[in-house]
Amino acid sequence: MNIQPEITYRGVEKTEAIDSLVNSKIVKLERFCDHINSCRVAIEKAHDHPSSGSPYRVRLDVTVSPSHELAVDRSPDTGTQYEPIEAVIRHAFDSMERQLKELNERQRGE
């Protein structure tokens, strides 16, 4: 991994499994874009007893050279089934992967 991620936990216990999942997803992002300068990940428990949706929220902020800032905010969706924290993390990183692919395509077209 070329970049040192900044991972923040709010209301969620930090575990080796979550850290490992996040770091493996960052390595995968670096395969799509080798110009990533920074990656900030915020994992939080939005509420303890949701009536529907997931109680977890994941936000990714990625800075890409020369001056691009990409962000993903995976928040609890109303009307959806409960999602474990690992699924919310995977969905957030999948969205960031799509944004990086689109950015790469735009940069090649410029």
From TrEMBL:
<protein>
    <submittedName>
        <fullName>Cold-shock DNA-binding domain protein</fullName>
    </submittedName>
</protein>
<dbReference type="Pfam" id="PF02482">
    <property type="entry name" value="Ribosomal_S30AE"/>
</dbReference>
<dbReference type="InterPro" id="IPR003489">
    <property type="entry name" value="RHF/RaiA"/>
</dbReference>
<keyword id="KW-0238">DNA-binding</keyword>
<dbReference type="GO" id="GO:0003677">
    <property type="term" value="F:DNA binding"/>
</dbReference>
<dbReference type="InterPro" id="IPR036567">
    <property type="entry name" value="RHF-like"/>
</dbReference>
